[in-house]
Predict the structure.
Amino acid sequence: MEDLLGRAKYLLAEARSICVLTGAGVSAESGLATFRDSGGLWEQHRVQDVATPEAFERDPALVWRFYNARRRSGFSAEPNPAHLALARLEKSKKVTILTQNVDGLHSKAGSRHVLELHGSLRRVRCTSCGRKTEDDPVELPILPRCAACRGLLRPDIVWFGEMLDPAVVSAAAEALARCGLFMVVGTSAQVHPAASFAFEAVERGIPVIEVNKEPTPLSRLAAVSLLGKAGELLPKLAG
Ligand code: OAD
């Protein structure tokens, strides 16, 4: 492991511009549940009941109860040493974070260039007029209504079967094109197109450092795959 860490440190020292793709594992040590680990959210809820547009049409109250619970835990969570180490990296590097997380913890830790690929728990969107609003009370009434047009509000989250925001995707593609190192932290690398950015980095010959508790489909393609907790490894890697 020390050798791998040394190699990862070398790659990091060489790069001036870095992209970091993060997933639920980076927030696990902040007390937030991941999705596919044992005890994860998708063991307790079926994706098709709470995280698709069809689910929201069928039973918006059920979907809102799920997201109110996530807003409660997400808003009270604090950044952990992994988020803080990534934020510190900005002192010496150009860092763009591509996160699949909707908890806002990278920004809370101080990272300034965060692209939220799957939306944000803090934002809601009107299903009638499309108006987006942020920082509503933690727990919203069921069912919440738009202040402008009284339309039904939905979480501004990218659900299964929906497209990512094209502006966010193109900003992520630009960051990928100019980076000299791609890091992948705490994601099972199974959900596309988010995971595709990491595989594209490999294809372009950009060195990839992976940090995860367990091997993933990306591990054997990464230049360095560090096995362990993000909150322990990232401070060692990034200083
Ligand atoms: P997953 O739950 O699929 O994967 C979490 C990953 O984090 C796993 O590979 C774990 O091994 C790893 N992990 C857990 N704890 C860790 C720790 N302390 N340090 C390092 N690694 C750790 O979560 P995501 O990959 O983020 O989308 O899932 C991607 C998307 O699928 C989510 O954004 C969500 C979900 O369905 C939507 O809801 C739209």
Q: What stands out?
A: Residues 23-25, 28-29, 34-37, 40, 51, 100, 118, 158-159, 186-188, 190-191, 211-214, 216, 229-230 surround 2'-O-acetyl adenosine-5-diphosphoribose (CB under 6 Å).
